[in-house]
Amino acid sequence: MENDKNFTLEGDDLTRYEAIVARYPTKRSAIMPSLWLIQDRDGYVCDGAVSWLSERLEMSEAKIREVLSFYFMYRETPQAKHVLQVCHNISCHVMGARPLLTHLQKKLGVRTGETTADGLFAIEGVECLGACGMGPCMLVGKHLYEHLTPVKADEILDSLRKGDPLRPDTDRELEA
Amino acid sequence: MSHDQYKILSKRFGRNDGHKLSVYESEGGYDALRKAFVLGCEAVIAEVRDSGLRGRGGAGFPTGVKWGFVPKDAETVYFMINADESEPGTFKDRFLIDYDPHLVLEGSIISSYAVRAELCVIYIRGEFGWLIDRMQVAVDEAYAKGYLGKNILGSGYDLEVIVHKGAGAYICGEETGLINSVTGLKGQPSIKPPFPAVQGFLDKPTIVNNVESVAAVPHIVTNGAAVYKQHGTEKSCGTKLFSVSGPVKNPGVHEIPLGLPFREFFHEWLGGMADGEEFKALIVGGSSVPVLTADESMRLNLDYESCAEAGTMLGSGGMIIIPARCDMVELIQVLMHFYWDESCGQCTPCREGTGWLHTLVRKLRRGEGTLEDIDLIDRVCNGMVGLTICPLSEAAVMPMQSFLKKFRPEFEALVQGRTEAGEASRWAREFRS
């Protein structure tokens, strides 16, 4: 990326980063939350961020890249605005994950692993999301949509397009 | 519900106020922690050992015995709560954290105190973003109320808690993989011994316990081992959460006394199959355990010993009900894709074996397989057992070999180029490979 070399954390982000490092018993053990902090801000972890962390956490860039590439959820390139992660594991499969995936692919005109031309959506087939009894399910960002049908999936897509996401099933009504 | 008497871990499930500290306290919350400080570490370990509580993550190792392995003279001890719940079919820990985060936290604090840990890391899988927030709120509340931090409730005991977010790796649910992940390494397992209880995180004694295991601890401390043992069998004590998926009338998380006959659970808790569905096979404890036919299931009791006798495992309690409409070869392809995807790549038999199994099953489903391929599947499986650092390799072999043994005609039908092969072929190409 163009601004890679200028990567830095400032202000509140830097304060949060420093708080993470202070809480973990060694610098190296702070790598995962540090990567999350960067990815939550930027959407992915750029090369400049790896160099920046390497210096501060006293880890080689290679060791940071090992961690970055080992875990499925860390991203090293910019992502679609909404990544639709559809569980294709056994329980969701039994309850209809396959027709759901096919429906989404047709609807968006992309295959699993691809991003729509407008950069709005990407579809990913992912392993068990821990919603087996409520499948098929789909993770969008931090929240899960459960008991999915093609109709419900369409409603979710429309709501995401409008920038007013449908309330996910995991966002329960809680007493304050 | 008539099954309320068994609700020890799940009594606040389904409520919209169970996450609140004030509600938890008003229902006796954190009294067990006060009692634990009065009893002392040794007495807490003894009580948990006597309760017969066994690790609820899947292995079923006695929790109190594990705690006893921590050297008494250790200066620094760590505790880790395994909430990396990723075994296909398993979603019970998610309910515990969602509906009752303070129960999980109180159990974590008491367990940490029992082994005199100074830091407790609650490792939650990254996909559970909303639960990480829920747990962090509970932790912050506990700090503010003096249940965490320095000199907890005037006991002289100090404990820090970190809520750690995973990043998508099944293997981090293995305890040494989890420890390595928190260390800042790839989440690949380490050879045991040394066992983590002696030499774990940062080379210090470390206990890793499943969420459900520690969630049972407050009840055991409050009421004593004898009360806990009122439910269950002689060797499988207490209650256990089962997360049930598949087309039954009441899927979801159910708490049952161990030893309950599956037949009773199936009809009375789950309400039997959904309309129009027929019961074909059962995966009793998460995708990694051997499958049972419907007939075998109906003779099974849900406890560790009965499951072993039936040639399977109670595992995590991630129960998957397979209906008659499902093609077993299709399902095993889904599972073999999973193990191949999640193998950490460290050990050759697992890295190569899971890939071979996936390739061979896919070949069969494309209608390109031979009878020799079916035998080869079995031979590959035999070369994957007992040769690896962690049990992921066996976790792939157990479903593979049992599916093959119990549903072999479905595999052979594909070889003989019968009806399904064309349809299978279309899907096999569609499925990410």
Question: Would you write up a description of this structure?
Answer:
The complex is a heterodimer of chains A (176) and B (433). With 176 residues, chain A is α+β, with helices and mostly antiparallel strands. Chain A folds into two domains: 2-70, no CATH class; 82-161, 3-Layer(aba) Sandwich (Glutaredoxin). Helix content of chain A is 43%, strand content 10%. A four-stranded mixed β-sheet of chain A has the order 2-1-3-4, covered by helices on one side. Chain B has three domains: 4-228, NADH-ubiquinone oxidoreductase 51kDa subunit (Rossmann fold, 3-Layer(aba) Sandwich); 239-323, Ubiquitin-like (UB roll); 328-430, NADH-ubiquinone oxidoreductase 51kDa subunit, iron-sulphur binding domain (de novo design (two linked rop proteins)). In chain B, strand 5 and strand 6 (252-257) form a beta hairpin. In chain B, helix 15 (328-342) runs antiparallel to helix 18, helix 16 (348-365) packs antiparallel against helix 17 (371-382) and helix 16 packs parallel to helix 18. Chain B is globular. The relative contact order of chain B is 0.12. Chains A and B meet through helix 2, helix 4 and helix 5 of A and helix 7, strand 3, helix 8, strand 5 and strand 11 of B.
